[in-house]
Every structure is written in C-alpha cells, then in structure tokens.
Amino acid sequence: MEVNVLLQAVGLTREFRGYKVVHDLSLQLKQGEVLGLLGPNGAGKSTTLQMLTGNLSPTEGQITIKGIDLVDQPKIAKRFIGYLPENPPLYRDLTVNEYLEYCAQLHQIKPKERKALVTQACRRCYLEDVKHRLINNLSKGYQQRIGIAQAILHQPEVVILDEPTVGLDPIQIREIRTLIRELGDSHAVILSTHILPEVQAICDRVQMIDKGKSVFNDSLVNLTGELDKLITLECESEIPTELLQSLPQIQAVQMKGYAKYELSHERGVNVAPLLAELCVKNNIKIKSLTPTTYSLEQVFMSLVHQESGLN
Amino acid sequence: MFMVASNELKRMFYSPMAWIILAILQAILAFIFLYTLDQYINVLQPALAGQDNAPGLTDIVIASLYLWAGVIMLAVMPLLTMRLLAEERMNKTLVLLKSAPISSTQIVLGKYLGLMIFILIIIFMISLMPFSLALGANLDWGKFSAAVLGLVLLLASFAAAGLFLSSLTKQPIIAAMSTFGLLLFLVVIYISGSSANSASSLFVYLSHFGHFSAFLEGIFNTTDLIYYLLFIVGFLVLTIHKLDSDRLQG
Questions:
Q1: Closest residue of B to A98, CA-based?
Q2: Domain residue limits, chain A
Q3: Most buried residue, A120, A193, B125, B234, by CB count within 10 Å?
C-alpha cells in the first residue's frame, strides 16, 4: 500500500532582516506518523511550524498539504491543519464550550456536526468537567489542553503542536502523550519540543534542527541503533578479560568495578545472547546485562558536534 | 465573516465595557437632551414664535444631541477599537484566526461588522430619545433621518480608522491613543479650517466634522456620502494589507 504523504515542505528558508532563522529545511509527513521536531532553544522550531501553518510565509521554498500549495490556496490547505501555537490562542472571557464552538465555526463546520465534535474533543482532552467554566479561571494545564482540543477539533489530517506538554503535570503529560499517540494512528502529527524523553516516548521519526538547519532526520530505531554499541555486563565473580575478548564481535573491554565490564561491540549486532552463552559455558553467574542506550541528549550533542566538526 | 462578527459582538457584551459605555453614553446624552429640550421650551420657543423660517424643534434639539454624540464618540471609539486587533495580538489569539481557513479580508470585515453592529445599537439607543418627542410634537423626519445617517457614517469612519491603527500595534493603549490622536486631529483641522481669519475649505473638506455638519442641517449630499465611504474603504483596505503583510514580516 502506498503511504499517503500529507505534508511536504521543500527547501524552506526564512530570513528575518537578513538573518536566516531557518535555512533550506525540508520536511515530509506521512499519514499515521508522529514526527518530532527537536532542537535547542532558538533553533527555528517555532518559526518552521509557523510557516507550515501559514502564519508566516517562507522567504523561499514550498509547502504543500495533501498536494495543495499553502501559499497559493491557503483557504483550502488550512482546512487540513490543526495548530497549537506556543501560547494557546484562548479567548479568556469565554467558557470552554463557547470557545470550542467558535473554533468549530471558524473551521466552517456545519451546525449539526458542531456539537458532536466539541463533545468529542472535550472527551479526548479530558475537559468534560470544566466545559462550562470560564477559560480565564482555569489552570495552565487546562488551558494547554483546551489549546490541544482546539487543534484537533475539526479532525484535521495534520496536527501541528508547538511544545504541547508545557505547563502540564506528569499525569497530564502522560495523558496527552497517549492522546498524541492515538492521533498519530489516524492522522499525522508534528510536534516540536526540546524535551528529549518526550520524543523517545511518542515519536516515530525525529527531525533535529540546529541553527535553522536539519542535522538529523530518521526513525528513532535507526537513531539509537546507530549508536548502540556499548553493553555493560555485571557478574557475581570476575571473568578474565581475555575470555570476553575471545568473542569476535567484542571490540574492547573496560573494567568498571568489581566484576563489572563495559564492552564495546560492533554496531547493529546483538551480543547479549553470545555473552550469556559464554558465561554459562564458563559457569559464571550473570547479575545483569544492560545495553547502554544513548539518550537523545548524547545523540544530539554528538550530531551537533559532528556538524561543527565538519565545518 | 459573520461568525467573526458575532463572536466579536458576543465578547464585547461579556465584558463590562460594552455595558458601561452604553450606560454612560446614554446618561450623558440624556442629560444633554433634557437640557436642550428645556432650553427650547422655556427660552427659545417663546422668542422664536412668530418668526418666519425659525429653526424648529428638530433643528435645535436633535441637531445638538447628535453633534454631542459625535463629539463624545471621539473619546469612546478608541476604547472600542483598541481591543479589536491590538488585544488579539497581545493575547496571541490572532494566530487562531490566521490559522483558520479564512482570509484576512474576512477577519477584518468580520471585526468591523461586529463593531458596526455595536455602534448601531448605540445609535439606536440614542435615537430613542428624540423619537419620544414624536409623541407630542411634529418632528421633521427628513432632518431626523439625515442626522441619524450622518452619525452612522461618522462613527463608521471613526471605527475604520480605529481598526487600522489597532492592527499596527500589540499594545491596546497605543492603539487607543493613536486613534484618539488621529480623530482629534481631524477635528482640529475642521476648527482651524472654519475659523474666521484663516478659513480653508480644504481643511474643512478633509475633516469628518465638515461633512457631518451638513447632515445635521438636514442636507444629504452625495459628496459627503462618498467622502465617508472612501474613508472607510481606504482604512479597511489598509488593515487587510497590514494583516497580510504580517505573514511576510513576522
């Protein structure tokens, strides 16, 4: 089955007074995908998202949503987008219900369907209890959720969320992450964040941006797989290092304490079963066998370093 | 467009401001109305009685009431227009409208329409007072409707100018001050243009009030109508352009 490309951006460049905030960035989003846009502060994430939602026109480059050019036919293209900006755009003098009704109107949803959609959005964002309260009187977490409800209300094909979990407590963060995952199954989601575990938790694919340029664009599995080459072995008694090195896949052994070894191995090879077999053969009891997973922080830092090293 | 307008109107009435403005305007104008009416009955009517072509009830009471309404709205209109776009910008809610599948034209016209409905409510409330005179006196309906139309056009032009200035800034106060400044400037032009020794018909022509006074005298002149329409359309087009160019400038 051909995978449906919902959003395609090619060669996006945005200048502010001669200063390039986003430089030649390309993006692609397929149906059923959650794309994480990751980068440090000031990397150009929000600017990119503003361009993708038609709030800012790119200096160069083209954006198409379901094949419709965003600059040429903004009114049609924008129907397919739900956008939560950095600051949720809330009218604080309205109640949650009124606000969402208005958003539905703005998206030209027929009066008949409006109620059902508002109810559904409220349910998905856990807003049922506060439906009739003024937005102004609600906490930041609730306001953030109203912002998300507003973005998914009209069931857009592409949902674009700028730092969706800011200001939420851990339980809410988990709920919202579940929600985003759910959305990712039926729609396509782009979210920007500088919180790396968040990307690990929900995204299928990561695009890292640094200084307006894309430094990495691949699935998470490839990302971690590429750097997974360390494993820590802890046993109850010491093993001679020569024995460990006898395995051809093991490249180096380093003592990390009593009977604790950090082994570096070839990329993409699963050495755990080999090590287990080796220990059993030699009658050594294993306490733990842990692959050292790189956190995205380390990946990010190494990527940024690579990039600056090349320059 | 209509939903933007109705939302604007709804939100205006959710805040106490719309009610306060309506109440205070009504109170002040009622006082002026009663005062001029009292003057007319006790002082002017006996004096004018028997004269040919003497100004009547409509000329004296209604014209002065609507003139005052126009003058007071000079100060009130900036308060109404400042929130339209500047406040949305400050609260970052403009993004909602801009990411929705509606054009800048629809946003601007919607906002303008919402405000105009509110203005029509104000004018309706004011007009109830002279209307009540019809119970016991003969009003000159032609002059009355010319005055109402004049006030509608005057306030519509205030609103268009205010909307444009509101689109330029994030700070509602700056929007209000600059609107007030512009409107007052146009009044000053009128005063200086119509003063005895430095009269300038150009200045009078450029000012709102120059055209408004013709309506108050019961003269309906297409030139005046076109002046107001050009003024309104001009500022609305500028506002739409400003919103569109936001996308380019960020």
A1: B7
A2: 5-224, 229-291
A3: A193
How far apart, in Å, do the first and last CA atoms of chain B sit? 24
Three-state SS at A276: helix
> In angstroms, what is the C-alpha Rg of chain B?
20
Task: Give CA–CA dist A300/B10, Å, rounded.
Answer: 49
Within A125-215, where are the H helices? Answer: 140-152, 170-186, 196-202
Ordered strands of the A81-84 beta sheet: A81-84, A158-162, A188-193, A34-38, A205-210, A213-219
A229-291 shares the fold of A5-224: no
Helices (H), A68-158: 74-77, 96-106, 111-124, 140-152
Sheet containing strand A250-257, edge to edge, reads: A250-257, A260-265, A230-235, A286-291
Taking the alpha carbons of A286, A288, A291, A292 in that order, is the dihedral positive or negative?
negative
Query: pLDDT tens digits, residue range B98-108?
Result: 888 888 899 99
Domain span at residue B200?
2-249
What is the band of A304 on the pLDDT scale with cuts at 50, 70, 90?
low
What value of ipTM does the predicted structure carry? 0.81
> Using CB atoms within 10 A of its CB, is residue A13 exposed (0-12), middle (13-18) or buried (19+)?
middle
Contact A131, A167 (CB under 8 A): no
Q: Which residue of B has its CA nearest to A78?
A: B101
Range with the largest mean pLDDT of A167-171, A230-234, A281-285, B35-39? B35-39
DSSP, residue by residue, B67-98: HHHHHHHHHHHHHHHHIIIIIHHHTT-HHHHH
CB contact under 8 A, A55 and B99: yes
Is A229-291 in CATH node 3.90.25.10?
no
Q: Count of domains in chain B?
A: 1
Q: Tell me if A89 and B3 make a contact (CB, 8 A cut-off).
A: no
Residue A138 has pLDDT above 60, yes or no: yes
Report the alpha-carbon distance of residue B29 to residue B170 in Å, rounded. 33
pLDDT of residue A268: 67
Residues from chain B contacting residue A108 (CB–CB below 8 Å): 101
- Band of pLDDT at residue A1, cut at 50, 70 and 90: very low
CB atoms within 10 A of CB A266: 11
Q: Does the beta carbon of A57 lie under 8 angstroms from any beta carbon of chain B? A: yes
Look up the CATH superfamily of A5-224. P-loop containing nucleotide triphosphate hydrolases (3.40.50.300)
- Average pLDDT value over all residues in chain B: 87
Question: Residue with structure tokens 């109404």?
Answer: B80
